[in-house]
């Protein structure tokens, strides 16, 4: 699975629990913009991303820009790999 | 009249400076224009502010006066969930963090306790208004005052302490450097006091609560005694103007609407105090010390009221000012260009660090939450308590600084790309 597929699965599982609708690649992920990720679920997501992709999410990576959509997050993880 | 140290203002900064200085046996005079007690806002004290009170030997009196005991602050997220708890913790160099408490206070009572406490320790107090500083060449040598009866008097001093609060006496007299607008200067606070508010049960009943709505839009809830709770709303000034309501109606509506958890805690709102408002209250004055003078607290800087640092800065800076003034009197030569330069650097460091904390809290709420809960919880507890004067910055503080810096870069990049399109 590529990065995008792994992330999409993760978010699909999350929305199944919360009953929200699955965001598209460009719909907001963060709850401040109406998305499914709030400050409680952001940490497990960061831990998952670090373990699954073997990257380190630095303090300065936890910017809204990197987590605002599935597309942004995919791009961020790919940029860490390259 | 001659005194060794003249202090303008009998609020917590001025009174605490006088009390910290009283053991060294110098003549100290506080000049206060208002009748004490008087109303003031800023009622929640940080952990280290509690320690300033302990250092001054006031813990028993704080307990006897039944000021609500504060074990921490709960910040409620926008929908009343995801409460974020910041405990008040002390710190010991060998054993680390330990549980402790501080207080929240009705400022008229608290400030009066400090003011009369200073007088009881041999400090002279004078009810008069400071009119203008006095000079000998480029050195401040006192202050001209006008008493309530209209008599003008010159008070000669070796050191003049400006603790005039938001009155910013020495700045108005043109003595300080440039006034820099703070990051939160376009905000308005509307506030009053209520009875019948639902607090946390048991020992937690004295805790401070913060209710977050969205960026720069939040409410405070601070117990003042067994019955009365201080409540206030902080919003962008534009938002307040657009509502076009009286202060009373604005506060009433916001308290109902701002956050479901706040609504639950205020089933019936009975204001027991006038509804008041203040605006544009974040600023910084550069160069606030010099020959013969120094400033403490709001007289040189006020950041943002969200985490109760107002009285803390006044009292902590009073403590540092007292030690700096003591060294000044112990030095027989007194030839330094600015005997209080080190004090000024220390104050700047503390206030700059809190500025980083508050900027990160507002600008990067997700990152802030990750740092506070997962990556640097102890450092964030230190900072909220007010342990922000260490020369070596805490890793959590460095992380906030880096995040704020990254945020500024991203904003610039965003604005540049916006202007190209």
Most extensive interface: A-B, 15 and 22 residues
Distance between the termini of chain B: 68 Å
Rg calc of chain A = 12 Å
Helix content of chain A: 55-70%
Instruction: Identify the CATH class of chain A.
Output: Mainly Alpha
Q: Architecture of chain A, CATH level 2?
A: Orthogonal Bundle
CATH topology of chain A: Non-ribosomal Peptide Synthetase Peptidyl Carrier Protein, Chain A
Q: What coarse outline of chain A follows from CA principal-axis ratios?
A: globular
Number of strands of chain B: 23
Low-confidence stretches of chain A: none
Provide a count of the helices of chain A: 4
Derived structural class of chain B: alpha+beta
What's the tally of helices of chain B?
Answer: 13
CATH homologous superfamily designation of the largest domain in chain B = FAD/NAD(P)-binding domain
Mean residue pLDDT of chain B:
94
Shape type of chain B: globular
> Into how many domains do the coordinates of chain B divide?
3
CATH topology of the largest domain in chain B: FAD/NAD(P)-binding domain
Strand count, sense and barrel status of the largest sheet of chain B are: 8 strands, mixed
